[in-house]
Amino acid sequence: MRLVRQYAATSRTRSSSGGLHGWLARGQTPEAAGFDGVLDAAGLGPAARAAVRDAGAYAGLWPGSEPASERGIRVEALSVQSDGALLTELSRLADHGVLFARVAHTYPLHAAAEAHARLAEGGLPGRIVLIP
In this model, does residue 12 exceed pLDDT 70? Predict the structure, then answer.
């Protein structure tokens, strides 16, 4: 979380044209050097780094597989470590209504294909949950 906060405080996902950008669909090519920062959740490595402006920031999700820094781009990799005490605290906060999951729709497990099709449409205001 510290790294995420650091990136949130120092980076914005705006292109050089000033427009706010979100997710790229499969097959779309990002504007070269058009983003202040990129979170590479797809493991694209150098292709995702190419979308970062000079002196911007790149964050990957697989430590050890991030591309080398170039053009003054700060390169980091996020990692996840288990923390039972923190998970217990988060569960307590959820039980007390402080934290909540945004659920857009629930589907029975046998309707998983329908759930995936709805997810692919995009625009959901929360998560899809499959119920066994």
Answer: no
